[in-house]
Design a protein that fits this description.
Chain lengths: 229, 888
C-alpha cells in the first residue's frame, strides 16, 4: 500500500491512539504513532507524514512547542486536539500555523472531515478557477458569486472575505486571519467591523440568515465555511 | 492515705453511691460473684436486698453467714454475726450498709467499727455507702435535701479504704426505677421517701458524690505525683476570687491569692469591675499588666461593669461559684466609703452571705497616700471655660439678687443661688460645681447675710443655714454630675451594643469570605480608628502569606506576617501592646472558634497607641462575631461539598454504568450479532458519554465561576450571531421544536464576553428543553434597554412553583419530580456568569404559561460602522458603493 496517505498521531493516551488508528485505517490511512513530543518531532522529520494529528497536552513538552518547531521547516497539515473551553489555546495554535482543531471529546466523523479538508488544501497548489459549494458558486476569475444560479451583488470587502473562506473551505479562520487578509496587518484588534461584514455576507448568501449554515461562528475563535452536501 | 501496704490488714473496698437504689449492693454482689468464679472464698456477712429480685438472684451460690438475733427490749433484731465471720476467716466478706447503727447490746455501736475489726483480722471487706452518710458531707446534704442523717461514717474510714467504686446512675433513670418499684418493693416506703427522691436533690447528691470520689482520685494522684515529683493539678472544691484593679498593690493581691489557691488546690478567678471612671494612661497600663499577670498565674478572667463594686463582686462570685473572695484592706478612702454607704470591705462582709471574705493588707506598712499614683483622672479635667462659666453664673445671679435684695429676703436669695448651682451641674464638671458652691456660699454670706459686707454672721441660726447651704449645693452638684456620668456610660454601652448588633446583622448576610472580610474591616476600622489586616487560613493548613485583598492595613514587611504566623500557630494574641513580639505595628488575634483557627486578624491603631482595656474587650467581641461568621461559612461549604460529592458521584456513575453495561453487551458474542441491538448499545454509549462530557463541563464552569478565576475578555458582539450560534450548537436538543428569535432591526453591538454569554444562554435554553414537553416552542429575544442588554428566554412548559422559583439558581437545586440527567448546576453557572458581568438574571412565569428567564447585563453598546477599507485596490479596480439599505 504505497499510495495511502500517512498520518502521524502524536498523543500520549494509548486508548485514544488505538481508536484513532482503527478509524484512520478503516478510512484508508496509514498510521504512525508517537507517544511523546520528542518522538513526535523525530517521526515528523524522518517519516515524512502527509498530516499530523497533535495533542496539545503531552507529558514531555508543550504541544504548542512541537507545532512551532514543525512549522520552522514544514507546511505539513497539522490538526490540533484541544481540551474543552480552550479557546485561547485554539486561537494560539491556529495562529502558529495549525490547520484546524477538534475539541476533546471529539467525534471521529468531525476529525475525519477536518483531516480531509486539511489534506485537500495541502495538495491544492494550482489556481482555482471556479468554486462550488452546494448552492453557492464563485467564479474566481470573473468575480461573480451566484446563489442558486442567481448572481449576488457583493461589496469589495464582502467579496474579499468570501475569497478567504473559499481558499480555506471547510477549515477554520480566526478573526485575526480574516482581518489581516482584508485590512492588512495593522488593523487586527477590533473585531466588530468584521462581524458586521460577516452578518452582511450571511444576509446575502445564507438560505436563512438567522440560522447560518454556510458561514458558521466558531465561538471565541473565528468562522468556518462548512462544505454543504 | 494508706499508701503502705499492711500485710496483716484486710483490704477495704467501698461501693459508693448518691442514694439508695443506684445499684451499689448489686454491683457489690457482681464483684463477689466474679471473685467466686476465680475460686476465691467469698462470704456474705450481711446483704440487704430490700426484696429486689435481681439483687436476690445474685446471691445464688454465695455462702451466706446467718444473722444472729439480738434481743432489743421486746424485739429480736437480726444483725450481722461478727464472731462467725472472724471464725470462718473467708478471704472476702460482704458487709452491706457501712453506715448502719448496730442494735444496743452488740460489741460495737456502729457497723463500720465491726468492719474495722474484720479488716484488722486480715479479712478483705466489700461494703456499700451512700453519700449522705459521709460525716463531712452531712451538713451539705442536709442543706440540700433538708434531711438530717443520724448515721454517719467518719471520713477517716473512707480515706482508709483501699478502693472506692462510684456507682453512678442518672437521676432520671433512678426515678424511673423508683416508679417501677425496683428500688423499694413496698410502695409504702417509696412514698415515705418521696421527699428525698426529688430530681433536684438527686442532682445535687450526685454531684457531691462525684466530687467526693474525684477528690479522692485527686489525692491519690497527688500522692503519686509527690512520689514522682510532679506538680499537682487543682482539686475542684473551693474557688477563690480576687478583685483586680489598676492599683499597683493589686499585683501583690494577685500573687497572694495565687499562693493561697495553690495551697488549697483551688481554682481562682480574677475579676475586674469596670466603672465609669476614666483611667489615666499609666493606670490603664498597670491594669492591663495586672490582668495579664493574673491570667498568667492561672486565673480565669472575668470582666463586669457596674457602678457598685460590691454588687458586681458578689454577682460575679455567685456566677462563678466562688467560695472565697480576696480583697485588699484599704481599697477606698473613708470619704468615699461614706458616700457608698459604708466601707467596701464592710459592705462586702455584710452582704457576702455564705461566701468567705479574705481581707489582705494590700499596701505597704506605712501607706503614704500622696505616694500612691493617681488611678483615675481627677473627674476628667474640666476645661477652664467651665470654671469661668460657673463663676460668671454665680456672679450674675448674685448681681441680680443684689438689685432685687430690696424685695426678697436673704434666705430666698440662698434658694436662688442654690438653684443656679444645681442648674450648673447639668452643664459643667464636678470641679466647677464645687468652686461655684464655695464662691456662692461666700458671696451669699458676704453680701446678703447680715451683717452685710463681712463674712461674720449675726444670727447663730444663719451659721447653720450657710453650712447646710454649702452641703446641699455640694450634694446637688455631685449627684447631678454622677447622674450625667452614669448617662454617659449607659450611652457608651448602648453605642457598643449597637455597633455589635450592626456588625452581627451585616455578618449574618455575608455569604462569602470576601463579604465577611469587607464587613469586618469596615466595622473594626470605623469603631476602633485602626486599620485592619486579615490573613485567612485554610483549616489544617498555614495561614495565607498574603493578607486578604480587602484588608485596610497593608503590612509592608514580612515582620508583620511572621507575627501573624506566630499567632496562628500558638493561638494566642501577640504584637503591639502585648508581651509577645511587641515590636510589631499591629496587634494580632487568632480567629479561634471551637478549637479551629480560621485565620488571624491584625489591627494597627491609626494613632499608634494601645487599645484601652475596655476597647480591647469590645474588639474581642467583634472578633468573636467575625470568627463565628467564618465558622458558619466553613460549615456551609463543608455541607455544600458533601452535597457536591453525593451529586457528583451519582451523576458520574449513572452514565458510566450505561457505558460499561452497553460495552459489556457489545462484547457478549450473542447479543452483538444482532445489528439492531448493536446500534442501540452504541447509541446508549454515545448518549451517556455526551452526558458525562456535559457534566465535566458544568463542573469546570462552576469551579471557575466560584473561584472567581474567570477572565472576562470583552469584544463587540453581534447578538443575532450569538443567538444563532446557541441555536446551532443545540440543534440536537432543539430537534422538533419551534425556536422563535426576536431581535429589533436597530440592535446595536454590545461589548461582552461572547464565549461566557453563549455558555449562559446555552444553559438556559438547555434547561428549557429539559423541563418542557417535547415539541414545545422556545422564544428568544434580545433588545438594548439603555444601559442594559436584555435577553429573554421563554418556554411553553409548566413554569415554576413559587418555592422552586426562589431556589432555581441555587447550586444542586433540582425542581422536585423532574427527570434525572441534570446536575442542578446549569442555572447556577448562568447566575455566576451574569453576576460576573455585573448583571442580573431572574425568572418569572409567563401569563400564558411557561417560564420566562430575563438576563440583564449593563454593557456598552455601539452602532456598527461600516467602513470599507481596501488594502489593495488593484484587486477590485473600484470600490462599489456601500449598499446601506441592504443592512437593515
Amino acid at each position: 500500500m504505497p499510495d495511502l496517505p500517512r498520518i502521524l498521531l502524536i498523543d500520549d493516551e494509548r486508548a485514544i491512539r488505538r481508536i484513532l488508528r482503527l478509524t484512520l485505517e478503516a478510512n484508508d490511512f496509514f498510521v504512525l504513532e508517537a507517544p511523546s513530543a520528542k518522538d513526535g518531532l523525530y517521526q515528523a522529520a524522518s517519516e515524512h507524514p502527509d498530516a499530523i494529528i497533535l495533542d496539545l497536552g503531552l507529558p514531555d513538552g508543550d504541544g504548542m512547542d512541537v507545532l512551532r518547531q514543525i512549522r520552522e521547516w514544514s507546511k505539513i497539515p497539522v490538526i490540533i486536539l484541544s481540551v474543552l473551553d480552550g479557546e485561547k489555546e485554539k486561537v494560539q495554535a491556529l495562529e502558529l500555523g495549525a490547520d484546524d482543531y477538534v475539541t476533546k471529546p471529539f467525534s471521529v466523523k468531525e476529525l475525519m472531515a477536518r483531516l480531509h479538508v486539511a489534506l485537500r488544501h495541502a495538495q491544492k497548489s494550482e489556481e482555482m478557477q471556479e468554486f462550488r459549494n452546494g448552492y453557492l458558486t464563485v467564479d474566481l476569475t470573473r468575480r461573480i458569486v451566484k446563489k442558486h444560479e442567481q448572481t449576488v451583488k457583493l461589496t469589495a470587502t464582502e467579496y474579499a472575505l468570501l475569497v478567504e473562506f473559499v481558499k480555506n473551505a471547510g477549515g477554520v479562520l480566526t478573526h485575526r486571519n480574516l482581518m489581516q487578509a482584508i485590512w492588512g496587518p495593522y488593523r487586527t484588534s477590533e473585531t466588530e467591523t468584521l462581524r458586521v461584514h460577516i452578518a452582511q455576507l450571511r444576509k446575502k448568501l445564507e438560505i436563512d440568515p438567522a440560522r447560518p449554515a454556510l458561514l458558521i461562528t466558531e465561538s471565541g475563535v473565528g468562522y468556518r465555511m462548512t462544505m454543504l452536501d | 492515705m494508706n499508701s503502705e501496704p499492711s500485710k496483716e490488714r484486710g483490704r477495704l473496698k467501698i461501693f459508693f453511691g448518691m442514694s439508695a437504689g443506684v445499684g451499689k449492693t448489686y454491683a457489690m454482689l457482681q464483684a463477689a460473684q466474679s471473685l467466686k468464679t476465680r475460686g476465691i472464698n467469698v462470704m456474705v456477712g450481711l446483704v440487704e436486698t430490700h426484696g429486689r429480685k435481681e439483687t436476690e438472684a445474685l446471691l445464688a451460690g454465695l455462702t451466706i453467714i446467718p444473722r444472729v438475733d439480738i434481743l432489743y427490749r421486746t424485739l429480736r433484731i437480726p444483725e450481722m454475726d461478727l464472731d462467725t465471720i472472724l471464725r470462718l476467716r473467708p478471704a472476702y466478706v460482704l458487709v452491706d450498709e457501712l453506715a448502719h447503727t448496730n442494735t444496743e447490746g452488740m460489741r460495737h455501736k456502729k457497723r463500720y467499727q465491726d468492719v474495722v475489726e474484720i479488716l484488722d483480722n486480715g479479712i478483705n471487706v466489700y461494703t456499700t455507702l451512700n453519700v449522705q452518710h459521709v460525716e463531712s458531707l452531712v451538713d451539705t446534704v442536709a442543706a440540700i435535701s433538708g434531711i438530717t442523717v443520724q448515721e454517719t461514717v467518719p471520713d477517716s474510714i473512707i480515706d482508709a479504704a483501699d478502693e472506692i467504686e462510684l456507682i453512678d446512675l442518672p437521676p432520671e433513670e433512678l426515678l424511673q426505677r423508683l416508679k417501677e418499684g425496683k428500688v423499694y418493693a413496698s410502695a409504702h416506703s417509696a412514698a415515705a421517701l418521696e421527699n428525698f427522691f426529688k430530681k433536684g436533690n438527686l442532682y445535687a447528691l450526685r454531684e457531691i458524690s462525684l466530687r467526693k470520689t474525684a477528690q479522692r482520685v485527686d489525692l491519690q494522684l497527688k500522692d503519686f505525683m509527690q512520689e514522682k515529683g510532679i506538680k499537682g493539678p487543682w482539686k475542684a472544691v473551693e474557688r477563690l476570687m480576687v478583685a483586680v484593679g489598676p492599683s499597683p498593690y493589686s499585683e501583690r493581691l494577685i500573687r497572694w491569692t495565687r499562693r493561697i489557691a495553690a495551697t488549697m488546690k483551688a481554682p481562682w478567678v480574677a475579676v475586674y469591675v469596670q466603672t465609669n471612671q476614666t483611667l489615666t494612661v499609666d493606670a490603664e497600663k498597670r491594669l492591663k499588666k495586672n490582668i495579664a499577670l493574673a491570667v498568667e498565674l492561672g486565673a480565669t478572667l472575668v470582666t463586669t461593669t457596674d457602678e457598685d463594686i460590691v454588687k458586681a463582686l458578689l454577682r460575679t462570685a455567685q456566677q462563678q461559684n466562688v467560695t472565697q473572695i480576696v480583697i485588699g484592706k484599704s481599697m477606698t478612702g473613708p470619704l468615699i466609703d461614706l458616700v457608698h454607704g459604708g466601707s467596701l470591705v464592710n459592705r462586702l462582709i455584710r452582704e457576702s452571705g455564705a461566701i468567705d471574705i479574705y481581707v489582705v493588707q494590700s499596701e505597704s506598712a506605712s501607706p503614704k497616700r500622696s505616694g500612691a499614683p493617681a488611678l483615675t483622672r481627677p473627674r476628667r479635667h474640666s476645661p477652664w471655660h467651665q470654671y469661668a462659666l460657673s463663676c460668671g453664673a454665680v456672679m450674675a445671679a448674685a448681681g441680680f439678687c443684689f438689685f432685687a435684695s430690696a424685695l426678697i429676703d436673704y434666705r430666698s436669695i440662698g434658694m436662688i443661688l442654690l438653684f443656679v448651682i444645681s442648674a450648673l451641674a447639668l452643664f459643667v464638671g464636678g470641679g466647677p460645681v464645687l468652686m461655684a458652691a464655695i464662691v456662692s456660699a461666700l458671696v451669699w454670706d458676704f453680701f446678703f447675710i447680715p451683717p452685710f459686707y463681712t463674712f461674720s454672721i449675726q444670727h447663730p441660726a444663719d451659721i447653720l443655714l450657710v453650712l447646710l447651704y454649702f452641703a446641699v449645693a455640694l450634694l446637688a452638684g455631685s449627684l447631678t454630675t454622677r447622674l450625667r456620668r452614669h448617662e454617659t456610660t449607659v450611652r457608651r454601652r448602648e453605642a457598643q451594643t449597637q455597633a455589635l448588633f450592626r456588625l452581627g446583622s451585616e455578618l449574618s448576610s455575608a455569604e462569602s469570605l470576601d463579604d465577611i472580610v469587607n464587613v469586618a474591616v469596615t466595622h473594626i476600622a470605623a469603631h476602633f480608628q485602626c486599620s485592619v489586616v486579615i490573613y485567612p487560613a485554610e483549616l489544617a493548613a498555614d495561614i495565607n502569606a498574603q493578607p486578604h485583598s480587602s484588608s485596610s492595613f497593608k503590612p509592608d514587611s514580612l515582620k508583620e506576617w511572621s507575627v501573624a504566623e506566630w499567632v496562628y500557630k500558638n493561638k494566642k494574641p501577640a504584637g503591639h501592646g502585648t508581651a509577645t513580639l511587641p515590636f510589631a505595628q499591629g496587634i494580632y488575634f487568632p480567629l479561634l472558634m471551637h478549637g479551629s483557627c480560621y485565620g488571624v486578624i491584625g489591627c494597627a491603631s491609626v494613632s499608634g497607641g494601645d487599645f484601652s482595656f475596655e476597647k480591647e474587650g469590645l474588639l474581642q467581641m467583634f472578633i468573636q462575631q467575625i470568627t463565628l461568621a467564618l465558622e458558619r461559612l466553613h460549615l456551609r461549604s463543608e455541607r455544600l461539598n458533601k452535597t457536591l460529592l453525593n451529586s457528583i458521584s451519582h451523576e458520574f456513575r449513572t452514565p458510566l454504568t450505561t457505558i460499561t453495561g452497553a460495552a459489556g453487551g457489545l462484547l457478549d458474542p450473542k447479543a452483538s450479532t444482532d445489528p439492531h441491538v448493536r446500534e442501540v448499545f452504541i447509541t446508549d454509549i454515545n448518549t451517556a458519554a455526551l452526558r458525562l462530557n456535559r457534566l465535566v463541563g458544568n463542573l469546570l464552569d462552576i469551579t471557575r465561576v466560584e473561584s472567581g478565576s474567570i477572565k472576562i475578555s470583552e469584544q463587540w458582539c453581534d447578538i443575532a450571531d450569538l443567538i444563532s450560534t446557541v441555536v446551532q450548537k443545540l440543534h440536537n436538543e432543539l430537534a422538533g421544536r419551534t425556536v422563535k428569535t426576536t431581535i429589533p432591526p436597530d440592535m446595536p453591538f454590545v461589548k461582552i464576553d461572547t464565549v461566557l454569554l453563549e455558555q449562559a444562554l446555552i444553559n438556559i435554553v438547555l434547561n428549557a428543553t429539559q423541563y418542557t414537553p417535547a415539541g414545545a416552542a422556545i422564544f428568544l429575544s434580545a433588545r438594548y434597554d439603555s444601559p442594559d442588554l436584555v435577553l429573554t428566554i421563554e418556554d411553553e412548559g409548566p413554569g415554576f412553583s413559587p418555592e422552586s422559583r426562589e431556589r432555581i439558581f441555587d447550586k444542586f437545586y433540582r425542581v422536585p419530580g423532574t427527570q434525572p440527567g441534570g446536575t442542578g448546576l446549569g442555572l447556577s453557572i448562568v447566575k455566576g456568569i451574569v453576576e460576573f458581568h455585573g448583571g442580573t438574571v431572574g425568572v418569572r412565569n409567563r401569563p400564558a404559561g411557561g417560564a420566562q428567564f430575563t438576563v440583564r447585563l449593563p454593557v456598552p453598546q455601539k452602532m456598527p460602522s461600516l467602513t470599507e477599507r481596501e488594502p489593495d485596490t488593484r484587486k477590485t479596480g473600484k470600490t462599489p458603493p456601500m449598499d446601506v439599505e441592504e443592512y437593515q
